[in-house]
Amino acid sequence: MEGSSLGIKLKDLREYYNVSQRELAKNICSQKAVSKIERGETQPTADILQQLGLRLGVDISYFFEEQEAPRFNYIQETKDKIEDLVSKWKYKEAVEIIKEELKNPLFRKATHRKFLLWKKSVCHFNLTQEKEDAIELLKVAMDIETHSKKTITNDDIGIYISLGNMYSDTQKYEQALYYYEQAKKMAKKLPVHGSAPPIYKLYYNLSIVYFRLHNFEEAVKVADEGINFIFKKDSLYLLGELYYQKGIYLFYSGKKREALQNMKKALFVFEEKGQDRFYKFVETNYLGFQRAARDNV
User: Fold this and answer.
1) What is the pLDDT of residue 66?
2) What one-character DSSP code corresponds to residue 2?
3) CA-based Rg of the chain, rounded to a whole angstrom?
4) What stretch of H or E contains 228?
5) What contacts 248, CB < 8 A, 6 or more positions away?
6) Which SUPFAM superfamilies does this UniProt record tie to the protein (predicted)?
7) pTM of the prediction?
């Protein structure tokens, strides 16, 4: 990749976050070096580029075309492994890896330690009854500074979503609402869209919290936002679940016909995706709501 192209990306991202060259360079390199990189007059070392990227909330691969991006190193592969285990609810396996890597010098950097503590708190929350301890550990992870305060990373958003999940699971819905709404605001400010599934889950979980707080109108609105987001991403991930949840919210709002229509859409999505277990669950509830709607006519 030509230095000028790399420099343009660096400058665009820096200006997007309104970070000065001096702020970006602090404790990494000189302000003059940043200026030269942006003008394409010099190529930064991989280490300096990585640090500049992290301060602006992106990985080094952001500055390269896909075919030029470096292969995942040990750290990234380990993070991916932990993410995969947590997403599959294999918390015991994940926490064993986390315990080992917290001793690993490769994970001493703030950004890596923040990630490990985040995932450790999620595992602790799900493996024990020490819910408050898990929440406190997650807040410790949240307070670790890894980049400029003006920038946002996918991990920052993920931590807020996890806090929302923990408060929701402990029925502290007002606190959950705060962290979910903050995560939604942060996601809209991301200049580089990362992994989408956490954002899908954000809309899904946020709509449920509004429902728990008996704010059916807002629950429907958030479900619609999630559905539109999924369509924009040309995906089906959580689409059936959102249609089903929207149907429930509408039913309790008194809009029974529209509610049943959304549940039918959910059935169609689950059938298309071959998710028989979800299909049968929604079908049973759909028939129940259908009977209830007839009885109240």
Assistant:
1) 45
2) -
3) 22
4) helix 216-232
5) 211, 259
6) Hypothetical protein MPN330, lambda repressor-like DNA-binding domains, TPR-like
7) 0.75
**Among 186, 188, 243, which residue's Cα sits nearest to residue 220?**
243
Handedness of CA 158, 160, 161, 166 (dihedral sign): positive
The answer for 90, left when phi > 0, alpha when psi is -120 to 50, beta otherwise, is beta
Return the CATH superfamily for domain 3-68.
Answer: lambda repressor-like DNA-binding domains (1.10.260.40)
Superfamily of domain 170-297: Tetratricopeptide repeat domain (1.25.40.10)
User: Tokens representing 267?
Assistant: 């059935």
What is the rounded CA–CA span in Å between residue 240 and residue 268? 8
pLDDT for res 196: 60
Residues 6+ apart with CB under 8 A from 78: 97, 101
Total length of the chain: 297
pLDDT for the residue numbered 70: 43
Both structure tokens of 168: 């929701």
Of 38-47, 195-204, 265-274, which range is least confident? Answer: 195-204
CA 228 remoteness from chain centre: 17
Question: pLDDT tens across 170-229, in order?
Answer: 999 999 999 999 999 988 887 655 556 678 889 999 999 999 999 999 999 999 999 998
Is 82 a residue whose pLDDT tops 70?
Answer: yes
Q: CA 50 to CA 27: how far, in whole Å?
A: 13
Please tell me the distance from the alpha carbon of residue 71 to that of residue 289, in angstroms, as a whole number: 51
Cα angle, residue 48 at apex, residues 44 and 53 outer, rounded to 5°: 105
Q: Give pLDDT, residue 270.
A: 94
State the DSSP code for 192: S
